[in-house]
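Why does this matter for the project? Reviewers at the last site visit asked to see concrete outputs rather than summary tables. In response, this paragraph embeds two records directly. Each consists of the residue sequence and, immediately after it, the corresponding structure tokens. Nothing has been edited or filtered.
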Amino acid sequence: MEFNYKFKGDTTVKNTSGSTSMNFAPDIFREPTYFSGYLNKHIPFREAISALHDIVVSDFRFKPKDKTDYKTWAKEQEDIWLAQYLGGAEDVEQKLKGIRLELEKVRREKYNVMEPFYKAQNKYFQYLYRTSPELMRVYDPVITIHPDELFFECFSQDESSYGKLGCNYNVFKNLSEFKCGTTNIDYSSSLYNEFQKIREYKDTHFNIDPSGFEVQTTAEESYKEVKIDVPASWVRGFLQVSSAMSIPATSFELHPMDVYNICFVLKRHKEKEGPRSIRYILKPGEPIRLIFEPWNYEIKCLRSIYTGNEAKEIRVWGRRRLLLLERLIPVAKSFKVVLLGSGLPTFYVADLGDMNFTLGLSGWTANDWSRLGNFDLLAPRAEADPMTMQKVFIGLKEKWVEKPEVLASRLQLDKSLVLGALSAFTQQGKAIYDINNNCYRIRELSRESLPLESLRFSNAREEKANRFFNNRSIQFNAEVSGGKQKLTGSVKEDNHTYKPELVIDSDERIVSGKCSCNFFQQNKLMQGPCEHMLALRIAFRKKQNLY
């Protein structure tokens, strides 16, 4: 997916013995976005921005060992070994010795001939790494300036890990005037190395300014960053993360030493067979326990007590990605863990005082955010008319950040309509749900409207659900229990009748559900609700004249 960016100048970082100046330039095609201030929290910021870089360059997908060279060598040796085994005569041994010497001579001559090519190839790849990170599939972070904080967002190379670093303005001092907005920045390995030079005794100037985004260190060679095209899956992943954040979940606090123990177990042991999961054992009033499979090693978090009202056991996969939090442990006060359910995404929010760092992990490493997780289908679905949608967006942009109930009260609108509109905006890339503060923020991922035809979340299941409703194939009952709507019914499809059930909370979000169909039996809610649950929801919304 092509996005056109225009930067006046290049990225600059200037280092002296007593100060560092970092200048970032936003896309000048966008509305003016700028910020200027000196770092007040040097070391925590350095560690947090470095952890964000660890996410940007991480790729936890399985990579089989390359055995090509070994197989080539073994094939060449096979005839020699066979001759050595069968040969007993002295003349055969002499012939083999001559052949081996001749073969070695040919190999040396081949290397001498190819050596210039190998050196040029290596030099070319090093050049690409320095000047064209897009060819290494490293995608740039997104930076957003808000009245209360400045935050960065990024995705990993395998698109299964999401990172967000939020910094309130206590992180900076000597602040100048700033203008809210969103833009992209380049974050190469060279820029990462510049961040490592941040020290407490050096004044560090952080400047986002339309004049250019350039990196130049004193007495070092300057370099230029090249913008890259953003893949559709990268954009779709951002939209799915925002939807997943707004889903009801189980949350609790972990002490930094408990996170250290998790990283210690993962670094000390390497699984060779499944299951490769962590089981969170949660019992009210008791220390949180973690069991690492397949070894069944247990960590008892004596510093972290579960304060929930209901005992639960939740399994999560893709656990090695938790090592991305390791650099934050020395500077974190606590970690908030948000579990959507077994096999569903998880979020880890590190409290860094005046900063917060969110790591969002998809259900497992191979299940990236863009392909299988249809979490927008679980989000509020109340449909608002265009005038109401515009009113909600303009109202949110007045404050830039606001809780949905406060926004609904200020605009004198029903909360369910506001939530439905905000959910639609997250799916359009115009807003984001802040899981740390439980509020919505303006964050326009692109200056133009996203091509919803290629990014559209409505899929074959939603189309089938609408067809069931239009064909009058649905029967359902609704009852209220504990402030939640419980829907039960039947959906006829061909010669089968399925029995879906659905629980919807007061914010119009799907909390739980089940169905007798094969899709649900195989996936539960890990890939979103099945078409029969969606049909049940559509029928219920139509009855209320809200869908």
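We now turn to the second protein, recorded in exactly the same manner.
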Amino acid sequence: MKINRFFTVPAVVLATQFSFAQATADSQNPIIQNFVNEVSNRSQLEDMAYELLDGVGPRLVGTPEMLAANEWTASKLRSWGIEAHLQQFGTWKGWQRGITHADMTYPRVKSLSATQLAWSPETRKPIEAEVVILPQVSSKAEFDLWLSSAKGKIVLMSQYQKIGRSDEQIKEFATPELYEKLKKEKEQATRDFQNYVKNIGYDNATLPEALEKAGAAGVAISNWTGIMGANRIFGAKTVKIPMIDIDVEDYGMLYRMARKAAKPRIKIETQSKVLPDAKTFNTIGVIRGKEKPDEYVILSAHLDSWDGAQGATDNGTGVLTMLETMRILKKYYPDNKRTIIVGLWGSEEQGLNGSRGFVADNPEIIKGVQAVFNQDNGTGRVVNISGQGFAKAYDYIGKWLNAVPKNIKDQIKTDFPGMPGGGGSDHASFVAAGVPGFSLSSLNWGYFGYTWHTTKDTYDKIVFDEVKNNVILTATLAYMASEDPEFTNRERRVMPADEKGEVAKWPEAKQPRRDSKNYK
């Protein structure tokens, strides 16, 4: 009931405020106490979130907005007296999103909820055409015969979703028997569609190309997450015709109309711009070490995002955490022993390109890295830290964690020595190079189902009290890593055998993709 929600929110806020106060009492180190007090009472997180997410907006590689984000982060660091610069690691195809308008014009008029996919070409002038669905055929030969009939049509390419409700909602309200029935029907429908695509000899990348070659006027998909209102937005697979994503509700309506031979028509207008190739940068901030300047503690987060929304939890919250951490380290830790670097990476979403570029281009820094702390997966408080396969990781991570305020430390589960990250986020670029890089893994808060790469990854999904928690944690870990009299041990664990009896291998260090040539 609504009344319960109104009473619950203040209780959560009070509990969080109490936990910050408790954190101060738990810590005996005056520098760490200053971290807690600053974050609790003078946080700049919300102002920075407004400037980055509402002001700059989404940060797709190759766009003017990505460059604006690089420049904004560098300017913010300089405003705190921190040395900052942009380090180029490559180029990418230039593009800028414009408006997306999609309307059904027949058999009735209705505005549609749709988003142009990244790098999709503009329409120049609105395109109006009949909507058709994929044919009921069972072989590539049959499908290729049909292709010519797609000429001049807008083709619905995704699986039809009979029920647009989340699994959680169905489970809550359906009888157990009905839930199992609907679950099996959905699973079977997914298998049937996967088999269909396999039988016609195409995939998600090659099918749009084939439709474009056949003369289709446009391609529409619905990359629904399974949660009402949330669709994932990635890149277009067409070059000359528009490719759009339509919300599950409107997509389903068009699909049913086309299947019933109602011959629906839609009009699409997109005003994106294809721009010259753009330079791609990492934003690098540096606080020089006073005692061991050639040893480094690196704070890591990727600055780029997909652009269906604002990129708030992927990875605005990681960026905000690392910026705020640098601010309070500069203010309350003036005699840092080791050099502290913040790396805000570009083009993570296309394969960790920014962080891989940094590793490849800065061998002297990599040689002297004490530790890397990376935060990526959403707005939640950090609840897991793995040793990433470094045999002695417990010796130093455990020691550093002991200085973290108890209410924060007690939330965290650890796994030592753990297994090396293979590529899910930027810490993996360092781990592959044999550098102790650690993921500060966050509580889910609906990340993968609701905000990850979706149209709902917006400012309002940030839980700032959780991000404050992560700033205190990260600042404490960075401080402790900088102060540690010993350089971290890089010995790797003995890798275990998998279920087939084959010994697992340490991830291979990979070169970054320096440009967008042949990128799909």
